[in-house]
């Protein structure tokens, strides 16, 4: 074997060894990469974008306001219901002021203008009733209390004399103004009754105002009586609703 052949064999052995070493290194590197790389069948971990957005996104103003109102409501419910003494005192004063009404706006308690108070003809301020004197139907603005001439006529409530006059149809008339916008009118009095009082004079309940007469021309055919009217705010009212009257019809039935 010559020297050239021997050299070629040595070179072939070396190249074979180098190639084998390269293959071994490649296999080792591939194995190392498989250990460190994530599994191919599992997706890479990513942050939950939806939850992150929810955490970073500011709350809806309407929802926030509703939540705040609920907190305030709960706080108010948990507060004691008792008010401080000062608040209670203020509330009491307010109720007292609102409940108080000036005395001049309150109707007085009325009493009968004549003793007995038997009504022989009732009031009918709006519906015409028969008049035996005038022989027709007409309204009757007051009630007629049975009373013989000369019977004392009394003030039905405290007040101030507002009228003393001679009415051409209803005869001698005295009127008294009272609290609550009320006015009582006494008619068919005697002529002398007009000399007992003067306009502006103060009278007490039950004070004599005059006497029953026979001066009412439009009621002259009726039995002797006092014609008594009650006006509130200038409007005629039925005195029977404000007085403890006795009707002649009820006595007859008994």
Low-pLDDT regions: 37-41, 44-57, 77-84, 86-90
- Shape call: rod-shaped
CATH superfamily of the domain at 118-253: Glucose Permease (Domain IIA)
* Structural class based on helices, strands and sheet pairing: alpha+beta
Cα radius of gyration in angstroms: 57 Å
**What value does the average pLDDT take?**
80
- Return the string of H and E elements: HHHHEEEEEEEEEEEEEH
Q: How far from one another are the termini?
A: 175 Å
- What is the CATH level 1 assignment of the domain at 118-253? Mainly Beta
Query: How is the CATH topology of the domain at 118-253 named?
Result: Glucose Permease (Domain IIA)
Number of strands: 13
The residue fraction in helices comes out at 25-40%
For the record, the CATH architecture of the domain at 118-253 stands as Distorted Sandwich
Strand % is 25-35%
Given the structure, what is the number of helices?
5
Largest sheet: 9 strands, mixed
């Amino acid at each position: 074997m010559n020297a050239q052949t021997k050299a070629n064999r040595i070179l072939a052995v070396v190249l074979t060894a180098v190639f084998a070493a390269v293959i071994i290194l490649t296999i080792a590197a591939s194995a190392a990469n498989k250990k460190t790389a994530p599994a191919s069948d599992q997706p890479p971990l990513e942050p939950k974008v939806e939850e992150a957005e929810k955490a970073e996104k500011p709350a809806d103003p309407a929802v926030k306001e509703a939540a705040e109102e609920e907190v305030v409501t709960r706080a108010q419910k948990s507060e004691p219901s008792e008010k401080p003494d000062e608040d209670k005192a203020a509330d009491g004063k307010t109720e007292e002021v609102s409940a108080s009404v000036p005395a001049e706006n309150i109707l007085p308690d009325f009493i009968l203008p004549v003793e007995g108070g038997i009504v022989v003809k009732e009031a009918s301020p709006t519906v015409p009733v028969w008049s035996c004197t005038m022989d027709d139907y007409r309204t009757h603005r007051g009630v007629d209390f049975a009373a013989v001439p000369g019977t004392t006529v009394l003030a039905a409530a405290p007040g101030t004399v507002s009228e003393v006059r001679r009415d051409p149809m209803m005869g001698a008339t005295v009127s008294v103004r009272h609290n609550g916008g009320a006015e009582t009118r006494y008619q068919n009095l005697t002529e002398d009754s007009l000399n007992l009082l003067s306009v502006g004079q103060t009278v007490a309940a039950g004070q004599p105002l005059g006497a029953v007469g026979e001066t009412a021309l439009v009621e002259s055919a009726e039995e002797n009586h006092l014609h008594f009217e009650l006006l509130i705010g200038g409007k005629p009212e039925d005195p029977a609703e404000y007085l403890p009257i006795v009707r002649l019809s009820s006595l007859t039935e008994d």
